[in-house]
Design goal:
The protein has about 350 residues and is of the alpha/beta class. The chain contains 12 helices and 12 strands. Strands 1, 2, 3, 4, 5, 6, 7, 8, 9, 10, 11 and 12 form a 12-stranded mixed beta sheet that branches. The longest helix is centred in the first third of the chain and has 15 residues.
Length: about 350
């Protein structure tokens, strides 16, 4: 695929309420060893404690597969968002309770690394990946990609919007149409990765001033902002709201469950790099390294794409079913470094322009 280093999505995603699960079972067989001496470490022992910002069913599948492939039991706590997960890691910095943080865009990981809360590790399986997926300092690992899309409830659109002579949205600007007043629901950029990358995307495609005009106009149509992008998908799928914005893979997954929801990928969209990192001073660091290695194998990447509709970071894995190849998308030139640097200021401005919704 053809991608510039700046065409990188930030902040994700991706996820619902927290619940502690302690268990394990079946899966697959591939991997690289924690010390990088072998690409197949065989069965391991012990356990791994994971803070997950992935969907519940994806986390359970990873738990099962990792146990079958390595013999290592995963205990996980699923958190509502990558922001919530990173906050928990910060709160536990003097006595870490987990070994791995997985899910959500890699920009959530950089501040943790800066605070000395992550363990440096570069997997031998990261060799050959585009450099944008590997932290040059070695503290996080990109292992999937998610594309920003408009979530549309097809039934409500046909009943309420189409009769007004309004065509389905093809761009972010189309969401400003008065026909969408009070039927949009959006994720808050202060708490949701998809919400932040969406806001930053408007800055990169429109410039600072026009972007804030856009946010102000859009807010007129937004009923309210929610803490999690997963809430946007749920509320749109069930028809409580007509449209919103989140990651295409979560929207498609909801559609496969029978809900009347579809993902519309607009022009000048952006994508996130979903991350994983080892929490420093966790109790199972060797197993954590095996987990990072395992995430990057072709077999695990195939599984991830099939179960979640996320794009793989490997070039030998096909695009998700129902989505175009990444290099066929019209992406905004997204500067990940700048997006991370301007985050605090962007969130403050968003609070001013969103009117407290």
């Amino acid at each position: 695929m053809v991608m510039g280093r700046k065409m990188v999505g930030v902040f994700t995603s991706l996820v619902l309420a927290g619940v502690l699960v302690i268990s394990g079972c079946g899966g697959k067989d591939n991997n690289a060893s924690a010390n990088g001496e072998s690409n197949n470490p065989g069965k391991g022992s012990g356990k791994l404690v994971v803070y997950s910002a992935l969907n519940e069913d994806d986390t359970v599948q990873i738990q099962k597969q990792f146990k079958e492939d390595t013999g290592i039991e995963i205990e996980y706590l699923r958190l509502n968002s990558a922001g919530e997960a990173s906050t928990r890691v910060q709160a536990e910095k003097n006595a870490p309770k987990a070994d791995i943080l997985v899910g959500g865009s890699v920009e959530f990981y950089t501040p943790l690394a800066d605070q000395g809360l992550l363990e440096k590790y570069t997997s031998p399986n990261a060799d050959g990946l585009d450099t944008m997926f590997n932290d040059p300092d070695g503290y996080w690992q990109g292992w999937y990609m998610g594309v920003l899309a408009i979530a549309m409830n097809k039934e409500r659109f046909e009943k309420e919007i189409s009769p007004k002579g309004v065509q389905g949205p093809k761009s972010w600007d189309d969401l400003r149409d008065p026909a969408y007043k009070d039927v949009l629901i959006m994720p808050n950029p202060a708490t949701a990765g998809s919400g932040y990358i969406f806001t930053a995307t408007q800055i990169f495609r429109l410039g600072e001033d026009k972007a804030w005009d856009y946010v102000k106009d859009l807010t007129t149509n937004v009923h309210h902002y929610v803490a999690s992008g997963g809430d946007v998908v749920n509320l749109t799928a069930t028809g409580e709201f007509l449209a919103g914005m989140h990651w295409a893979h979560d929207i498609i997954k909801s559609g496969k469950k029978g809900y009347p929801i579809e993902a519309v990928i607009p022009e000048e969209t952006a994508f996130e790099i979903g991350g994983a990192a080892i929490i420093k001073n966790g109790g199972n660091t060797d197993n954590a390294k095996k987990f990072i290695d395992w995430l990057l194998t072709k077999e695990t990447q195939d599984m991830s794409t099939q179960m979640s509709s996320r794009y793989s970071v490997r070039t030998d894995v096909s695009p998700p079913e129902g989505l175009p190849a990444m290099d066929a998308l019209k992406l905004v030139e997204y500067d990940r470094v700048k997006a991370a640097e301007m985050k605090e200021g962007v969130i403050k401005k968003f609070e001013e322009f969103s009117g407290g919704k």
